[in-house]
Structures are given as C-alpha cells and as structure tokens.
Amino acid sequence: MLTVTRVVHASVLLDFGGARILTDPWFSERRFYYQGEPRSIATAADLPELAGIVISHGHYDHCDLDALIGYPDKTVPFAVVPGLAAKVRAAGFRNVTELAPWQRTHLGPVEVTAAPAKHGVPEVTFVLRAEGDTVFFGADTLRIPELDEVARRFPEIDLALLPINGLRIRPILNHRVVMDAVEAADLTHALRPRLAVPIHYAFTSGPLGDRIMTKSERNRPDLYRDAAGDLAPETEVRVLNPGIPLTV
After folding, report:
1. What SS3 state is found at 145?
2. Rounded Cα–Cα distance for residues 134 and 224 (Å)
3. pTM
4. Distance between CA atoms of residues 47 and 42, nearest Å
5. What is the side-by-side order of every strand in the sheet holding 195-199?
6. From 60, 156, 167, 171, which residue has the greatest number of CB atoms within 10 Å?
7. Phi, psi dihedrals of residue 106, rounded to the nearest 5°
8. Cα(113)–Cα(65) distance, integer angstroms
9. What is the pLDDT of residues 166-175, one digit of tens each?
C-alpha cells in the first residue's frame, strides 16, 4: 500500500507499506524563501523513521541540510544528484549515493532510479518503486523531451508528483526554471500515471522578492487540474494540503 503526504513545497513523505521516503527536505525559512503554506512537520526531529531521503538538487528550498541535521539517524541512506554527496556527508549523514540519470540504488526496500531534469543547477528527478507501486517525483524541473523516456522505461506509474508554478527569475529577463501548469499537464499525458498530485506552487519570495526577484503562477493548482483534465483525462488529479495523507 502506498500513501503520500505533502510536508511542504516539494517535500513529500512517501510510505511504501511502512518504508518511508522523504523527498527534497525543506524545514526552515529565510529572507526571500517562504513556503507560502503551513508546513505539516515542524522540524526534522519530528519526522517518522525513514527508509531513505532523496534530494534532486542543491537549492536551499529542496536541500535544507542545516535543518535536516535535526533528524537523529545519521545512517539513513540518501540518493542525491551528482556533486551533492560531499555536502550531505559534511552535515553528518554517512550513507550517501549519487545517481546520474538512469542509475539506480535501493533505500531500504525502495528501488530509486534517477531520471533527467533541467533547472538552474544540476538536477535529477526520481522514480521510486516498492511493494508493486511506482512513483515519479518531478522536483522542480522544466518540461524537457528527455522526460518522455520515463514513460518508456516505466510504463505503469501509479503516482506522479509534478511541479507546476512556472517559476521565472526576473533579473535574468524572466528566465523560466520550472515547468508551468500546462507543461506539467503535458508531462502527465506522456507519463500516464493513475494519479497526479501537484507540488511546488505555494512558494513566495515575499512582498519585495515577488516584485524584483521571482515571478510564478503562485497558489494556482486549479490551473494544473484544469489543464490535466484537457490533456490527460485518464489521470486522476488530487490537490493535497500539507499533512493530509492520501492512499494511492
């Protein structure tokens, strides 16, 4: 049995029959980085026992290692983007595996395969499988053609977690670094998951930052739900508030 619970942003708990995986941990805020929604787990010390942690890339809002130090089990295994292992080990976690696209490892009983991604820094997405269930975790990638290969290699996806806010960086000519709702719906069509849950849409840079630093389709999961209804009608879309578990 697979259960999904959003923590906040792209941080999600996936429970594969008791084996829990945490994605892209973010447990604090700082100037220009605000979660924009209530976090369902206050601190890393409040996390349940984990079978593993996956980290797609090194941006603070996906890789909050200073806060994650509060998690007591420093032997918990990690699967991370290439180039990040030294930083994770420096935070005190000893069991770290770097995965380039299509490389795989196991975090406890959960098989983890890295998949392609494109963002402002090196990034991977992940496919996680256990207990007969398959999950695609989209981190905050752009919609790139290489992601179509995920569907070929994993033709039966039970759950897709997809970023949708279309984040743009204002100082660099509104350069976009995250897929938007329509592109996420297009990826949903390509992946054909049974269920899709949008992530990465409440983030705000604050009143000043939203005017001078970032631009996004903030707090609009309805845009994705509507677009997926048109482009991927065979997939059920569920918008989950943080802390509300959903059994897939």
Report:
1. helix
2. 21
3. 0.98
4. 9
5. 104-107, 110-115, 125-130, 133-137, 159-163, 195-199, 236-237
6. 167
7. -120, 135
8. 22
9. 999 999 999 9
